[in-house]
User: Fold these one by one.
Assistant:
Number 1:
Amino acid sequence: MERLNVNISHLKLDNPIIPASGTFGYGKEFEDLYDINILGSISIKGTTLHERYGNELPRIAEFNGGMLNSVGLQNPGLKKVVDEELTYLNKIFKKPVLANVSGFSIDEYVKLVKAMDKVESVGIIEVNISCPNVHQGGMAFGTDAKEVVRITKAVKDVTRKPVFIKLTPNVTDIVEIAKACEAEGADGISMINTLLGMRIDIKKRKPILDNIYGGISGPAIFPLALRMVNQVSKEVNIPIIGMGGISSSEDVIEMMMAGASAVQIGAANLVNPWICKEIIEDLPNKLDELGIDNIKDIVGVV
Amino acid sequence: MRKDKFAIIENEKIANDIYKMVLVGNTLGYDKPGIFAEISIDLCYLNRPISMSWVEGDELTLVYKIVGKGTKLMSEIKTGNEITLLGPLGSGYNIEAGYKRPLVIGGGIGIPPLLYLTKKLIENGIKPKVILGFNDAKEVFYEKDFKNLCADVQILTLNGTYGNKGLVTDILEFEEYIYSCGPLPMLKAISNKCKHGQFSLEARMGCGFGACMGCSIETVNGPKRVCKEGPIFDKEEIIWKD
């Protein structure tokens, strides 16, 4: 359906719906549920240079408006992701994907991006500088404008594929960070990653998460994500992939009106694994109701 | 995995904080012991993973304990309402392990899936022995149900208010093969007293179907998801942590 088409960088997506990194694995858990080729794209589980088990359990907590996780970038490492996971994903999903990568040093980011540059099925490299669940690197990079500059510059030098920097909301001024990315040649911004939070087991007087703190996701963060996307979209000219608590076709439209060219669906996949399909099917009805011809016409209207 | 609506025909307290919910709907694929479903509960963001304790025709029985907000809300749902299940999920027990007289041993809210397991073992010509442990007489449930299936059932309570006094491991002799479900310290103690066995592990889950890695544990064969490769694991595979 043409009216759902969106453009981000040189890529034309059939629709703006992309499952977010870490909530869709490499597609295997969803391929039997529905035809995943209806998706605009897929952002793969965050990849690190070396294999990571991640944090100890419990890694999951809940609250009224969503959930917290402290998974800590569990993944089989770059080589296996490229040789096995992306090879398999390419068989079941026939469109370019977003390769989400996370490093613990500039050198690691460079190695990851170099490797993903060579993978044909990778359409966009999503550089995660905002994981709140690792104790070195991760969010520490994304909260320091100087580090953001260094990483963006370094990775842009080693790839011709579009680079989207995934930003953390755990900063005083996200606009400043986004501008730094743009100035160093980033092709786009993915925002927002999770917000750092915690829950306490009041009987045990102990944090629920073994990692103590974890990333908040789900509907509670939607208004905050929306506000940040809106602020950034007014100050930068590169496209934004908006995410944070999106759970319905109305949320998608709202996020795009705020300034996002495409969206990612995260936590909602975990509660309702058919949510992306349901949203894609519902979007044309919503556009009709609102008198919108093409979804790309609403990007940044607010 | 499907998303199915079930009608609630029973939701009753059967012991202290322990409830039994009987559902009617599409039970296709739930017919294996140790299988669970993610249950959607109004006012809770995440679904709740609960094991099947009996499957018959178009009926599923879940026995659950009130341990927090989700299970409390679940206990307040009136019969006649509908509830949505995401399932069937998990690997289930392997009932063809090849042992003629295995021990089925469980504690507390780990006991429910063992009832259906016991039934399936007996249907397969296996004659299990059963040991069930509870904290207190007020928490005892399913005694009759097990005794209807199987002649050799022993009950213990920690404080001696019902059955023999003590922990299930107090009367446990070294066993060739064990099927178990219960609190982690109990499972760990049991694993030291058997040659082989299958253990049902528990974890806080995000999705329940393998997408989020929220319940991933380290095993001797690398990381495995409690929800997907588990929740039943062979003794040889489990790395017990403190």
Number 2:
Amino acid sequence: MDQTRRKFLKTMAASWGAGVATQLSAGNGSAETRKAARDSMLNDGTITWSKAPCRFCGTGCGVMVGVQNGRAVAVAGDMQNPVNKGQLCVKGYHLPYVLYGKDRLTKPLIKKNGAYVEAGWEEALDLIAKRFSEIRDEHGANAVSVYGSGQWTIQDGYAANKFIKGGLGCNNVEANARLCMASAVVGFVKSFGKDEPMGCYDDFEQGDVFVFWGNNMAEMHPVLFSRITERRRKANWVKLIDIATRKTRTSEASDSVLLMDPHSDLAIANGIAHLIIEKGQVNEAFVKKHCVFRADNEDIGFGMRGGKAYKKNEREISFDQYKAFVKKYTPEYVEEISGVPQGQIRELAALFGAPDKKVVSLWCMGANQHTRGTWINNLIYNIHLLTGKISEPGNGPFSLTGQPSACGTVREVGTLTHALPGGRLVANAEHRAFTEKIWKLPAGKLAPKPSNHTMSMFRKLGTGELKAMWVQVTNPMVTLPDLNHFNEGLKKHKPFIVVSDIYPTPTTAIADVILPSAAWIEREGCFGNSERRTQQWDKLVDPPGEATADSWQLIEVARRMGYGDLFPWADEAAQGEGLYEEYRQFTLGVGKDVATYSELKQARGLRWPVINGRETRWRYREGSDPYVKKGEEFSFYGNKKFGNRAVIWQRPYVDPPEKPDGDYPFWLCTGRVVEHWHTGSMTRRVKQLHQAMPSAYVELNPEDAREMGVSDGAKVKLVSRRGEIILEAAIDRRGVPKRGNLFVPFFDESKLINELTLDAHCPLSKQPDYKKCAVRVEKVTV
Amino acid sequence: MPITSVVVECQQDQTHEVRRQVDNLPNTEITKIEGDLLVVVTDTDSQKQDHALVRALADLTGVISAVPVFTNCEDLAEGIGIAPALAEHETHAPMEV
């Protein structure tokens, strides 16, 4: 690079940094500095800059992508995007790199005689359509399935949903969000009648107390966490409270850390509710006007193969019955279950109960990947409802998401077996009729019952009941719990598997057909983030080789199977807007009104419901949410059957299905690291990220390690009832588990920790619990 | 070669000390100070150096966070095509199913 060019780029970098710093500090002249930064970019004649949302987590940061000679060559945090205000995390900063790994899939591959052979699109698509049709005709539509992800664009998910439900006429479409967000969905629906948060990221600048429920936000949502630390920097009374089973970077930044035993969050939440009632801190006016109390069966099993099935017995209870129920969750009893000193429980309850403190609760996988995931979501809502700290600036429960469009695609488009777009249900006759009308289907075409949730789908692949699956944008052969079990079933029954992805993965390794996908800015699309913000981006560079958008692939197979009328758009260019605008019709009038495509092209995303171009920051609140009528103050209008009131649920603490014992004395928790995203199929191809975090490890508590004679860096073997793995011991490094606990990240496909995990799940949400099973540690002699 | 700008957030009353430490780091230039925030531009010869420098900024005493906000990698047109970090594991061989 010549010196003039280098100097120019440094000026641009400095200018952009100045703009972000000014934006963050909101100092004088910020608009002027920001404008200077933007102008410096626009004035560069060699790089074309365009907006896009980040490809990774559910935060939905805005990035500016610099394209030169058809390649992405630069990235900057988008100062105009209110989500990140110009900031990026280490993954976002490496975004362009994930497009250019040397082993990108560029041509369709068909397995012939045990080897993959390059094929043309016609041959590959014809083969998929032929095999799907044969299986449908021989075994019924329910033998065919599509399994996608929260990384699908809204367009991809909508095409998959329409193909399976409107074309094949079955409900075998699911997405990996079942593994990460299902408990949040069911939790929201059970408490409020509608999915997704009532609050938004603006709460982070207005809260006084931030409570992290099993949520290592500093590493998993670093840009949002920096908004919270910035809030504390400006307001020294702000408190951060970390409830966790291991100390992390979030703990380091927190004012108080409640180190709990796994699964005991259920008791802690009930204990806080009890103290709020006991201290007379219930917001009686709010509760009386806006809440009802309900209970359900408490012995509901754990979703195990051959285990007890959940049977619903929901019923109304009184406040006094609820009060009597939580009475046993005294601080002493909660300490006994959780190991958290009662003084800390009292302190946290006092913060929730203080009328002058605005409290934001935050959680993600720690609460959702839980055999009582729905319950713990409900229990957190209970606390906010009892105190009336909900749906107002700085006050509210906020469920974070892990994927860029788990909300936008899976939850809003409804790519789950029970769902139809816009929060509708396949089991509801009116909803099916509405969908048939939009999709121009004959009445009665849509199947009225949910078929297989994700765990059921993979269990049936393993038993041979499900004959075909098309996997897109996800890597289940790394992420499913109890992987050995599924592997054995696949080997035995040999289902027909199609995988669309951008790189080879352990999942492409089991495919009969591999399709090369266009990634991120190689096609246009939309994502929906954690705060109901829908964001659009244009195609900015060409995909490599013959790679194409996942939605195009689905539509081409649908056409070959006779479902072409469902997709009247001529080509990929027309599908972006066409699929979105058709989907949008499902959102209107039901409180989920997404913005028009043309509005999204201009904006840095808009938070639904968007009415007359105006977004909604706090749902269910008069003056903010256009669905709340004047004089209602609050209206939880998803719960019409309860008079637009939210539900405070009676949910007890119960023991988990597997606990440490003499043979397996440790708890195992799995999770992520800041350098890698999910299974690492993209970030492990970025040399710097790989070097920073090259392989999985196991974190041990230093005292446990000392007792076992295990030193940092030593190899140890973890053994569960389902599998075993050898890992390097990490002691006193990034995270420090509570005594008796271990932590292993799941990004490393060469060290599959999910061969040890348990496939128990929440019986309501069907979401597996990756956060706790029992293992033992054995020293490895070299 | 990579050019990156990083917004460094300092703990209260630590800005001066952080500034002193940044001045001692090679290939860095403080281009703006806004309250407790420093804008640091790095200019290194490789991605490895760039990445190490960003981490070093984050690890400085008195730093709350070091957030990259801009990076240019146009000289890495071929270098971006990193050989797969996973090749050594040979896990992509088709399973026998």
Number 3:
Amino acid sequence: MDTFLTDLARLLSLQDANTRTVLLGTGTLGLAAGVVGCFATLRRRALLGDAIAHAALPGICLAFLVVGSRSFPAFMLGALILGAFSAGVIAMVRAYTRVKEDAAIGIVIGSFFGLGVVLSSMIQKRPGGAVAGLDGFIFGKAASMTSADAIATSLVAGACLLVVAALYKEFKALCFDREFAASQGWPAVALDLIIMALVCACTVAGLPAVGVVMVVALLIIPGAAARCWTDRLGVMLLLAGLFGLGAAVIGAALSATLPAPPGSLSRGWPTGPLIVLSAAAAFLFSAVFAPRRGLIARLLAHRTEIVAP
Amino acid sequence: MTAPDLTSGDLWTIAVAVCCSVACGTIGCFLVLRRLSLLGDAISHAVLPGIAVAFMLTGSREPWAMLGGALAIGLLTAGLATGVRRLGRLPEDAALGVVFTSLFALGVLLITWVAPSIDLDPGCVLYGLLEFVPLDMVTLIGADAADSARIAPGQFAATPTLEVPRALLWQAGLMLGNLTLITVIFKELRIASFDAALATTMGLSAAVVHGLMLTSVAATTVISFEAVGSILVVAMLVAPGATAQLLTDRLGRMVMLSGVLGASAAIIGYLLAVWLDASASGMISVVAGSQFAVAAVAAPRYGVVGKLIRNARLSQRIAREDVLGLLYRVHESGDSRPASLPHAQVLRAVAPGFRSRLACWQLRAAGLIQGMSGDELSLTPKGVEQAAQVIRAHRLWETFLSRNLPLPLDHLHEPSERLEHFLTPEIQAKIAAEVGDRSDPHGKQIPSP
């Protein structure tokens, strides 16, 4: 416990270069993903991020096969290409066949992730394949982030936030009144595509920290928590960004400082689940305690109504 | 590279994969139809903490305990998603996303905590341990089950005892259970899938049918994950059903087809995996996805190519009929025979580009028009007969419109120009009986059938 407190003190004082790196990378990412995720949820595309994330795994494997070594930019590029491809596949299945979007997402998740598993099983058997660190991408391993990785991640996050800031008015109209947006002469389809691209960028940038299976939580949960507190989009985005930032920082900090589970081979705790559970705790707290929309507030309002007609 | 010989261990593994794929594929059809595909995904992720808690409580990998824990969580997922949706006022998919990522995260942490004392890591929940199926055999017939030396694959074949992999018993039982359930409540499932309100008015409880289906999905997910991994379960619950949906319109056929597609994906995928020395469950998922891709492109009725071909043929028929109609009007007005029109003028009037050229070429080949391209075109006697039918449809519809709707005369041509291609002889006869078939509102004669 002593070591835990010392670690925590070191972490909070940001003495460690590695800690600064990890917190910078995951924190900015959590912020951007929280904001972008609000638009994804409002456009009813919450689980598209899940498909993109799962499709990123074969992209990372292919990048490793092409480059032949562990290269963060190459991995991200491969993930981005296959992630965007999977989003395109889902859109085309929805547009051109009678199969519905949920089934399209399920098929993409299953078969693309299956492809990733096939490729990674082949890579593991190759000489030097074990160093690829592909497992880290499945459950998230923020501790292995280098400072260059963290800077790249925060640049992506910053770019996403800039796009949202620049197109805030247009996105808002698109989410709440598509016809109005179209009547203003704004290209609704192009705006939709930009939102998809932002989702894609945040998902891929989040892979190293949170992992393929859980990165979609970074997009959905902060927005869901923020929704409990407000009816205004601007406030919701701000809160979602803060929740995302907070969850990412708390999760990464816990992962770095919690003593490894007893008997484990110094594996430590995976970052992804800790970040997701921090976000889930924020959601649960918001859903219960938020004024007006929270569970308690609603129960109280209900009672008042009955008692005093 | 040649395919390595298959051992009896491989055959047992294939049997397990086939049973699992059939079990998932058949019940998965109903998930696809009810747009609940992602529930399978969610449940298969969410069972992780259930397994971990069951292990922590019982301290062993007792299958029944794990199954109970996972099944409880699996059913809880559906309930929790509804709860979160109401609590946070979220769209359905977002609520599902909140629930299953949180549960999966919890499961990974719990398993990381207990992992050193148990050979279970989160990875094997995702990919499954299909390759290890033949290592865990149980004796069905015969005595010497305790002889641990015979767990090596391939050894049992010569003895009179019958040993089967433990996973096969589970998967075969699951498959039979799902098939029985679907057969027994097929009618109820069908009504509840397509028209839940009708089911309720008929005294069937849609909720009970829904609950049975969800229980079956949860049981399928939970029983399958250890052998084949949750990723294969997700793929198999959705892909074969969606593929079958592209191939047929009948529910019974869809379920059967989905089972067959699942089984074939399992066999082909496993053989490919052996050949490439890669993960079997991953490869089976890839094959299931490829089946869907092929069907989406090439399915006769609902495939993209089939649709394009049908559209192109329809536009071509319309272009041909427009050429015939145009030439007929020239033929009708001209006193001198043969009444003809320059080729270029026909092309301009009908449709610019390739389509009208092809139409003229087709009509010439069929002997309905005469004249070279770049020259004057006119109808042959046979062409006059055919063209008369197009014009008859056109003028009948003009007559019908002017009798029934207060439209000015110059508003009749446009709609009739479109509908003339779709009026069958039966409809023409009915219209003729209703409004007569002498002359159209413009005073032109309506050709006889």
Number 4:
Amino acid sequence: MFQAMIKKEFLLLIRDRQALIALFIMPAIFILIMSVALRDQFKQEQISFNIMVLDQAHSSNSKKLYKSLLENKSFHLTNESSQAALKIIIPKGYLQNPKTHTKLQVVVLDALKGDILEIFKAKFTKVLLKREIASIQDKLNLMLKTKIKNPSQELLLDADQLFTLSYQKSDDIPTSTQQSVPSWIVFGMFFVIIPMSTVFINERKQNTLARLNSMNTPLWLMIFSKVLPYIVVNQLQVVIMLGVGIFIVPLFDTPALLINGTVGAIALLSLALSVSAIGVASLLAVLASSAEQATTIGGILNILLGAIGGVMVPKFIMPEAMQKLSQISPMSWGLDGFLDIFLKAGDISMIFTNALMLFAFGLITLIISMIILQIRMNKGL
Amino acid sequence: MIKIDSLTKKYGDFYALKDFSLEIPEGTIFGLLGVNGAGKTTLLSILNGLVNFDSGSVEVFSYDLKTQKKEIKAISSIIPQNLAFYEQLSVKENLDFFASIQKSSQDSLQRSIEVNSLKEILHQKASTLSGGQKRRLNIAIGLLNNPKIIYFDEPTVGVDPRSRGEILDSIKSYKEMGITVIYTSHYMHEIEYLCDEVAIINQGELIKHDKLDNLLSNRVSDKVLIETIANAKTASLKVKLLEKNFIETTQEKLCEVLNILDENAIFVKQIKYGTTDLENYFLKVTE
């Protein structure tokens, strides 16, 4: 009986083309796009801003500031407000009277994200500090009657000049591929929620489950027979996504995925993630009233769990409360585990707790699904 | 025999079945009639052990439904109103799957295929079948466990007349195999064609249970049905025309109608006295 149920699940799954595309091709494309897109994420020097400068002061100080901005590669000056992301207004009296400090005004013209604005503020502050120091130096020169050439160049204001950033081993340097692959593996695996719940609801709605029940098929078998085929699908997904990271991504001039951890750890964690994703799918399947509802809720749930769990946005940049909230997402447990495996050369002992939590979550949701299904079937579905 | 005694099933405050008692003899084709929501599907689901009941008792072929549900399921089969199979699988894959679930023999599998004329379409994907072929597959699955009782819940919905005829004939043949058939349908002529006995349910209660012949007996009506030889003029006459060649009248007005037909040179094929049909009877008792 169990063998027949498993075979049926495989056949249904293999013939659902849309589901297969969603399960295998989409995560692979995600990995490719995100790895290439994030390749230069931390190279802030390459980020530049189109700015418009409105000089109302027409003073030597304002002209010097204008010149500094013009010479800085991080800023492209334009006279067209439609092309500018930011407008800098140098007001009358700028730096003329130390007692009445006249501030510059910066107007954001484009829809810039908070993190990009932070980068702008840092870059702009650097320019202003250089200018202020140069101005103080000029005054000191006058007082001391000894001229120091290019004073700002002698000050260590660049991060590169202030400190050096290095890793203990060269292998430890995380590449964009290593950072994006774990996220999309976890996200992709949870996509089984949609096809699995849809198949299950169709069985429920078309009375196929009732028919199986009338044939003395136990409820646990109806639920658990779905676990194995989707575990196989999930493991295939992991293999394909790792393959994309290792073999396809380098073809796009992006670092290949380096797996520092053990294969055993990857296998255990992906197995635990499967059980967890299948548990969520079962719960959705018994709670949703139609396949359409399951597809919509499943999609939203996947994105929500991903967003909370740190798949979309790295957890370390989330607010503290949000970081605490992320701990409730099973995607977060899986993601942390994969990051440990890829970045910290994690083995089974390192990811064991995460795997255990995922297994427990999956089993609990499967058991709850079974209880709900039993109640619904007793009521005639 | 199926013995139902004082069966009650409630959904919240609503009585789906109320103090319902009925005996269904073995080896008959038994019709269950009732409007939508009368309680037919609930009754079938209870008899199959799919839905629990609140009070009363049910005995199916000497098995008690409360304590021997598994045994009852093993000798029963339900043909649900919906097409309860997998559209993505072929006819053969569906039959193989449901046969494996019930550990059916190869003989049962072959018999299901033959009785339901599925041999030619075995390798066709279920989703590509016509409405009639899908219905036949739905029924074939129900035969796989070699059941003693088959419950049909409106099995001919959305089926073309030709396929419907084939399905009805196959159901008649089950009686010859010794299978007890319990049949629900909205099509009264199907019940008339198939059933030996009929029970009429209304609002969860049994209204009438009798042999079909008794329900349609002369005592019920003084109506007379005249069947004529096809003639285009019939439609223009001052008579109550039921269908193209069928005129309905009463014994009192029979001579008058026959005279009209004679004057118009319309020949009579047959006259049936005291007829009623199940539909009229059903409407009368469920008013």
